[in-house]
Amino acid sequence: IDMETVSRGEVSPDRLALSMLSRLGSRSPLITSTRRLCAPALPKGVLTTHYKKIDRATDERWQDIDMERFADETDLLIVGGGPAGLSAAIRFKQLCNEAGLDYRVTLLEKAAGAGEHTLSGAVLEPRALEELFPDWEERGAPLKTPVTSERLGYIPPWFPSLNLPLPIMSGTPTDNHGNYIVRLGNFTAWLAEQAEELGVEIYTGQGGVEVLYNDADEVVGVATNDVGVAKDGAPKDSFERGMELRAKATLFAEGCRGSLTKEVIDKFSLAAGSEPQTYGLGLKELWRIAPEKHRPGHVDHTAGWPADNNTWGGSFLYHLDPSEGDGDTLVITGYVVALDYSNPYLNPFKMFQQWKTHPSIRPTFEGGERLAYGARALNEGGFQSIPKLTFPGGALVGCAAGFLNVPKIKGTHTAMKSGMLAAESAFSAMQALPEPAEAEEAAEEEEEMPPPFTGPVADLGPYQSALEGSWVYEELHSVRNVRPAAHATPLGMWGTFLYAGVVHYVTRGREWFTLSHGGADHERLKPASEFSPIEYPKPDGEVSFDLLSSVALTGTNHEGNQPPHLTLKDDAVPVARNLAVFDGPEQRFCPAGVYEYLEEEGERRLQINAQNCIHCKTCDIKCPSQNIDWVVPEGGGGPAYAGM
Questions:
Q1: Residue ranges for the chain with pLDDT beneath 70
Q2: Segment 41-87, tens digit of pLDDT
Q3: Which candidate, 392, 441, 433, places its Cα nearest to that of 215?
Q4: Second label for 167, Cα 20 to 30 Å away, from 61, 334, 530, 576?
């Protein structure tokens, strides 16, 4: 609305006020509070109203609503704007430019801006980046902090006042020589800039909610989420149907435990020949510390406490170069807990806060200021858990498939390389497709839209063999037994230390055997009756903090009046099983306070605070009943990480 329109009296004061508020952005506290006040209350016992779970065809409130979607076509569609998806887009466009072809590449990213949902440690191994952009330094890639020193320690759970140094041997996975400490969100945003310069169309704030198939059950694209649906599932006056993006090839790059990735893995039985994926939960904070404590380029890792010997857990503490924060003395720190733990009373967030109180860790943070917080699940299954990568019409890339190198604590380089290999296969397959038939000239000016694209689709089968012949596969194969060694013997974490320090050091992964992870993470959780509640120290407000003040630092916001995107397969299961058997573990493993068990009129019930969700996917993974199904909320919702 321009001021000339206002001066002519063509705009009401109410509309002008709304326009001015909209300029504040959807994260305005005023707008957010208004939306939440207007959200309709759900009937007692009802938790799931999302249209992914409720058939709107039987709901009379939807009978007169136009449900037709607008359809657009592209050549290569990429779902997810992390390092893997962006590397795929870039490599595909590089090949187009080399061949003088102009294939259309479209990328969907659910975050409001590139990199805003990206969270990782992170120390980056630049191998894949050097292949993608040999001139990355000249292009201004935000790799400003080369690793200059490092330490690896072990904090014994039975003697937690110690921090015992462990050797870092040259050439082993723990050696970070030649790597860079990065703020991965900034690196992702830089990749997005490079992609757009090459002609990639990036649409942020657009979540993929449905996979589209043709009559032959081939993937032909995805549909984006609807907007303007109320919390009770009814259409609002602002309802708009999502759009269809149809493509000759679709790459799923949603990251760990992607909602559409789960669907295609199940539909095409892609995991039938692999072990169940196993996961970790990484919690992270960004701090400004006292200048005299700052050591730019220093990397510090610990294993052990507060995790016990039967729980895989460890920390990271990285000192950034002042140029990464406008001269600030910044450090990034975090704690990773494997989600195959057994004790339902374990609380990963409180473990992280407790770790910072260790006498060898606490002094770093004293006198400093915590600036940001976040959390994200990560794949830890490695070689044994890689699913089949291709299916009719598409492929999985990056953490959607699970290429994290656990002992290295790195997966960005392998994710990027997988995206590049998929792009090369897609480019070759695209050229092999028959030329589309020439459209007949319209006899009349107003001709009906052509039918939506249904094929033929590209065959990405060669991507599978390309990845298996790459350094990614070789690297993951060489470390395949490190992670499962923690469960292979009664020694717990000591089994991992013995394997890594003796067997792997000698064989470099060439041993004849492959250890098993031993099952899915949710299956390992044991009934609460076998444990006692864990008493964690109360936060001191100086180096350790409570959960809600932490979530406030994520910038998280969702439209309050929309169906909760944390959907349940059965609304009765949380109380009947999760609470009754496991004492409600979702209220402890969630790092954002989404799940609460409340008592009303003498009865317990689950409350889902969907507005708090930071999209970590832990609930989808660790729910012992596998009853929680995470789906995308309205586009742009979620955390707003700044360089995490």
A1: 1-41, 437-449
A2: 677 779 999 999 999 999 999 999 999 999 999 999 999 999 999 99
A3: 392
A4: 334
Q: How many Å separate Cα 302 from the centre of its chain?
A: 24
Cα 330 to Cα 319: distance, rounded to the nearest angstrom: 6
Q: How far apart are CA 474 and CA 462, in angstroms?
A: 17
Residue 333: CA count within 13 A, CB half-sphere: 23
For 622-642, what is each residue's pLDDT tens digit?
999 999 999 999 988 999 999
Supply the pLDDT for residue 448: 63
What is the structure's pLDDT at 617?
98
Please give the DSSP secondary-structure letter assigned to residue 579.
Answer: I
Selection from 598, 604, 600 nearest residue 577 by Cα: 604
User: Which residues have CB under 8 Å from 495's CB, separation 6+?
Assistant: 485, 486, 487, 488, 489
Tokens 């269809």, located at residue: 244
- Looking up tokens 């590397």 gives 87
In 156-291, beta strands by DSSP E: 164-166, 180-181, 201-204, 208-213, 219-224, 227-229, 235-240, 244-252, 279-288
Question: Among positive and negative, which fits the CA dihedral 28, 30, 33, 35?
Answer: negative
**Which has the closest alpha carbon to 394: 257, 276, 263?**
263
How far is the C-alpha of 400 from the C-alpha of 412, rounded, in Å?
Answer: 12
Which tokens belong to 444? Answer: 């009349």
Name the residue with tokens 């006056």.
237
Q: Which two tokens stand for residue 183?
A: 């703020």
CA angle 65, 67, 68 (to 5 degrees): 135
Closest CA to 579 of 549, 556, 606: 606
Would you say 270 and 463 are in contact if contact means Cβ atoms under 8 Å apart?
no
Distances (CA, A) of 357 to 95, 161, 329, 365, 536: 51, 10, 21, 9, 12
- Whose tokens are 């999502």? That residue is 242
Using omega within 30 degrees of 0 as the cis cutoff, is the peptide bond preceding 451 cis? no
In 3D space, the residue among 420, 374, 377 whose CA is nearest the CA of residue 395 turns out to be: 420
Q: Are 233 and 53 in contact (CB under 8 A)?
A: no
Q: Which one-letter DSSP state was computed for residue 531?
A: S
| 490 exposure class (CB count in 10 Å sphere: 0-12, 13-18, 19+) | exposed
Quick one: which of 464, 422, 450 has its CA closest to 76? Answer: 422
pLDDT score, position 42: 77
The model scores a pTM over 0.85? yes
Q: What are phi and psi of 431, to 5 degrees?
A: -70, -25
Whole-number Å distance between alpha carbons of 71 and 220:
12
The strand pair at 227-229 and 208-213 is best described as unpaired
User: 313-319 and 369-379 as β-strands: parallel, antiparallel, unpaired?
Assistant: unpaired
Please tell me the predicted confidence (pLDDT) of residue 14.
39
- Can you spell out the DSSP letters for 231-249? TTSPEEEEEE---EEEEEE
Residues 6+ apart with CB under 8 A from 534: 343, 345, 346, 347, 350
pLDDT of residue 212: 98
Rounded Cα–Cα distance for residues 349 and 375 (Å): 9
- What pLDDT score does 447 carry? 55
Phi, psi of 632 (to 5 degrees): -75, 140
Nearest to 252 by CA among 282, 207, 195, 217: 207
Which residues are annotated as catalytic? Answer: 120, 376, 412, 590, 613, 616, 619
Which two three-digit tokens encode residue 57?
Answer: 């065809």
At residue 218's C-alpha, the angle toward residues 436 and 384, to 5°, is: 130
| pLDDT in the model for residue 491 | 85
Helix (H, G, I), strand (E, B) or coil at 582: helix
